[in-house]
Write a structure and sequence with these properties.
The complex is a heterodimer of chains A (750) and B (127). Chain A has 750 residues and is an alpha+beta fold. Classes of the chains: A alpha+beta (750), B alpha/beta (127). The interface between A and B is medium-sized, with 29 and 28 residues.
Chain lengths: 750, 127
């Protein structure tokens, strides 16, 4: 701003009014840009449904555009932050650099995501399996572990407990021991260097940072399982898909019992991966000589029985029976069971317990196997170990032999009545069929059938549906959007879903049979077996495709709240975080000009409580001016929601004096003396609204606990810092209204 | 199914081919997919396709060259251009050179199906 001051001949200070006007104009521009950013994210979220054909170019354009907007926001925030300080002001300079640094760091995340590279800056060197999350850890531990974590978390299937030593540990180990140049030489497939590298890996020094974390993780497991603990180690390479058979062939396992054994085993596993056989296997699967390795360390299960489940027979895939090969030390039995509940055993007849599996155990395995097949939308080969309960140790898809011709599928589909085509919005891709179950309230969920089609008016109530989702084969709803919570849930559970069908609850009755082809935005009456078979053979599943996978990661880094309903990125900021913070800092900066200037002729809100609530319009937030304004003349949605809470509160603080900056979609309210600040952005057209509320010295008050409980109901997280901060985004407008009204009630008593 | 329309899809992004093949097959078209333009041109020389769907920007041979090649071989064939670099200039050039339609990525398969259905109608009308 120095040039402005020079230009105006006012080196010391601009008049507050002029300064305010200049900055509020910039803030309006920031709001416009933020809206553009949210639109971009919302548009990309809709593409996740799989209805659109997307490619890598789209992804890079999406990232470029989002970064360009965020960059402008950061730039504007920096300009706003200049305040009265000169450019030589060290503190201001540091703050400016910090903003750009955070933006650059976030942007760098996209580069390795789009380049499909591992995350070598993992904050941990031993990640507990129970904490592994696909979107957060895929680039740290690889796809196999994250998918196993998914079946554990979403389908409730037991997998062996343990921890993962991520790619970053391998990279750190190489750097620490100066092995990277040798690895580069070895990568040229020179046998001599490869041998040398392998030998060095066996003798390598494992840095304290890695060893101590391994020690900690092993100690935790030892506490739980005692001296009988045995561990098994298995590696995963970055780029290795769970569909590949690679892992099975190069697995190196060793029994280990102490942390020192794990460290030694870790070196052995790494060295083994640079052996001739492993490299040959890698090359045959299209992976390079050089590979980033993560190693899973899990509790060794000593099974009573072990085996494999094939959810379809690869040789005769006409939706044949489920096949279970079970082994004990001295017996092998092949079971065949029907694919529908109660999974009757077809073979071996009269020999139900040859290899120790009872009828109930076979049924239990079938139910688990089919839930995995439904989740991954293709027939699966599942390895299991039965200790006291069944554990799944790995899963991979079955590759079926036959193919269905064009003629068969096109004519088959033509025979079925189409109930809907292109009338709704695709929330989650895939094909699903089953019996319709109309859900109007919580009680309807109690008798939800296995493989049922959930039909409801709207599904924005979030968490209530989670309990039945593993049983759901498809979702149809009258209302809703692909960006809503229900859509996120459907995608999370890989359930085909079409929302916004307007009359599906009137058109369908409980018990009707339907087939949903969400990828085609079509609903058929009846079970279209041919379509289900076609999907299985064609194996086009957007969730398995790299571009859709990348889109999920990109969205997670763009705005995690728009995608992930339960968790927030830990330790890493999304671009939305950067953009929002820039906006917030700019507003605080603007408020600093206005709030001390209580004498400024701002309109005061008419009210019965004797509050002095001054309003400053910063962009179509009011329709009239004057000394006193009525609440009806306020157009700012967040302010109105906030005021509804303030005016509806049972008790009111006798002294209330505050200033609010209002825009149509925005409100920033600060009490004199800054005892609290509320900052909210709310736009009808997006579900990514946010609300901040900072209360000083109010921790644990009942009002704030109410807010916390409400957030909890929506599955929203929040942060506490200083006094208390509700810190959340990705709220729908009604959610934000409710939250703001609650905050308003809390304000009235402050 | 001798009346089946023969459709060739060419895009160097594998995901596009993989996504479009089932989508078009479900509508009753016989679909062949190619990620390599040279191989696609070879196939076009071998077999008569009613409709060719091609990306514009590809390495070595671009979509406009494919368009010219197809039309040089058969005036009756319809070429539909799909592109992630949708600009007025590209669209104008493609249409001026005889493309039947132009679709910008990302798109829904239904948009392509409508374009193909329109092309099919014209093909049938010409007999």
């Amino acid at each position: 701003m120095d040039w402005w001051r020079n230009f105006l001949g006012r080196k010391d200070r601009l008049p507050p009014d002029l300064l305010f006007k200049l900055r509020s104009a910039r803030l309006r521009r920031m709001h416009r840009n933020y809206k553009k950013f949210l639109d971009l994210v919302r548009d990309a979220v809709e593409k996740q449904g799989g209805e659109f054909v997307i490619d890598r170019r789209y992804l890079s354009t999406l990232v470029e555009n989002a970064c360009a907007i965020a960059n402008e926001l950061v730039y504007d925030a920096n300009v706003m932050a200049v305040k009265g300080a000169s450019r030589s002001d060290e503190k201001a300079q540091r703050a400016r650099s910090q903003r750009y640094f955070q933006f650059d760091r976030t942007r760098a995340n996209f580069e390795w995501i789009l380049a499909w590279q591992p995350d070598l800056e993992s904050p941990a060197f031993a990640i507990p399996s129970a904490e592994v999350d696909e979107l957060e850890h895929y680039h740290q531990v690889g796809g196999i572990f994250t998918r196993m974590a998914k079946i554990r978390e979403l389908l409730g299937i037991s997998v062996p407990e343990g921890f993962v030593i991520p790619f970053a540990a391998f990279h750190f180990l190489l750097e620490y021991n100066g092995l990277i140049p040798l690895l580069e030489l070895a990568s040229s497939e020179s046998a001599i260097y490869l041998k040398q590298f392998q030998e060095r890996l066996r003798e390598v020094f494992v840095p304290y940072e890695i060893a101590s974390e391994i020690q900690g993780a092993v100690s935790l497991m030892a506490e739980k399982y005692g001296n009988s603990l045995q561990l098994i180690m298995s590696p995963v390479l970055f780029g290795e898909e769970c569909h590949s058979s690679y892992r099975e062939n190069c697995r190196n396992t060793s029994r280990v019992v102490t942390a020192q054994d794990v460290v030694a085993g870790y070196k052995e596993v790494l060295a083994e991966l640079y052996g001739d056989a492993a490299i040959r296997m890698r090359l045959s699967h299209g992976l390079g000589v050089r590979c980033d390795v993560a190693v899973a360390v899990s509790r060794m299960i000593v099974p009573r029985i072990k085996g494999k489940i094939y959810t379809s027979d690869p040789e005769f895939p006409q939706k044949g029976p489920i096949r279970i090969e079970a082994f004990t030390r001295d017996a092998r039995t092949v079971y065949e069971a029907s694919r529908s509940f109660p999974y009757d055993i077809i073979a071996p007849k009269g020999q139900n317990t040859v290899a120790g599996l009872s009828r109930e155990e076979v049924q239990s395995l079938c139910a688990r196997a089919l839930s995995i097949e439904r989740y991954f939308k293709s027939p699966q080969e599942i390895a299991f170990l039965w200790e006291k309960e069944p554990y799944v140790t790995h899963i991979r898809p079955l590759h079926l032999k036959e193919d269905v011709g064009t003629e068969a599928i096109a004519s088959a589909i033509a025979r079925y009545e189409i109930l809907y085509r292109d009338q709704g919005k695709v929330a989650s891709p895939g094909i699903g069929s089953g019996k319709v179950h109309l859900v109007e309230g919580q009680k309807d969920l109690l008798d939800f059938p296995d493989h049922g089609i959930l039909v409801s008016t709207h599904l924005d109530a979030g968490d209530r549906w989670v309990a039945v989702l593993p049983k759901v084969a498809g979702i149809l709803a009258d209302e809703g959007k692909p960006t809503g919570i229900a859509a996120s849930l459907a995608r999370e559970f890989h359930i085909p879903a079409i929302v916004g069908l307007t009359d599906v609850t009137r058109r369908l009755l409980s018990g009707d049979m339907v087939t949903i082809d969400a990828g085609e935005n079509t609903v058929y009456r009846g079970i279209v077996e041919e379509l289900l078979d076609y999907q299985v053979r064609e194996r086009f599943n957007p969730e398995d495709e790299m571009e859709y996978y990348l889109l999920r990661f990109v969205l997670h880094r763009l705005s995690s709240g728009s995608l992930e309903w339960r968790k927030k990125v830990r330790g890493k900021e999304s671009l939305d975080d950067v953009a929002r913070r820039s906006l917030h800092e700019a507003v605080c900066n603007l408020a600093e000009i206005v709030i001390p200037s209580w004498f400024m002729p701002c309109p005061c809100l008419k009210n019965d409580f004797g509050y002095r609530l001054y309003l400053k319009d910063i962009g179509r937030g009011m329709t009239s001016g004057g000394k006193m304004v009525d609440i009806d003349s306020i157009t700012s949605r967040p302010f109105k929601a906030l005021w509804s809470g303030i005016s509806g509160a049972p008790l009111h603080s006798p002294k209330f004096s505050a200033m609010a900056l209002v825009a149509k979609q925005y409100c920033h309210l600060a009490r004199k003396g800054a005892r609290y600040i509320v900052d909210a952005y709310q736009c009808e057209e997006t579900d990514s609204n946010y609300v901040y509320a900072y209360f000083k010295d109010s921790r644990n008050s009942q009002d704030l606990l109410d807010i916390e409980n409400t957030l909890g109901r929506y599955g929203k997280t929040f942060r506490t810092a200083g006094g208390f901060a509700v810190y959340r985004y990705a709220l729908s407008c009604p959610e934000a209204d409710e939250l703001l009204a609650m905050i308003g009630r809390a304000l009235a008593n402050q | 199914m001798s009346e089946e329309l023969q459709v060739l899809v060419l895009d160097d992004e594998p995901i596009v081919c993989k996504r479009l093949k089932p989508a078009l097959e479900k509508s009753g078209y016989a679909v062949e997919i190619f990620e390599d333009a040279a191989q696609a041109l070879k196939r076009i020389d071998e077999k008569q396709f009613d409709i060719v769907v091609t990306d514009v920007r590809m390495e070595e041979i671009d979509g406009i060259q494919v368009l010219e090649h197809v039309l040089a071989k058969s005036k009756d064939a319809k070429v539909i251009i799909i592109t992630g670099y949708a600009t007025v200039e590209v669209a104008r050039e493609a249409l001026a050179k005889g493309a039947f339609d132009f679709i910008a990525k990302p798109f829904k398969p239904n948009e392509l199906r409508s374009a193909i259905a329109k092309a099919a109608k014209e093909i049938k009308a010409r007999g």
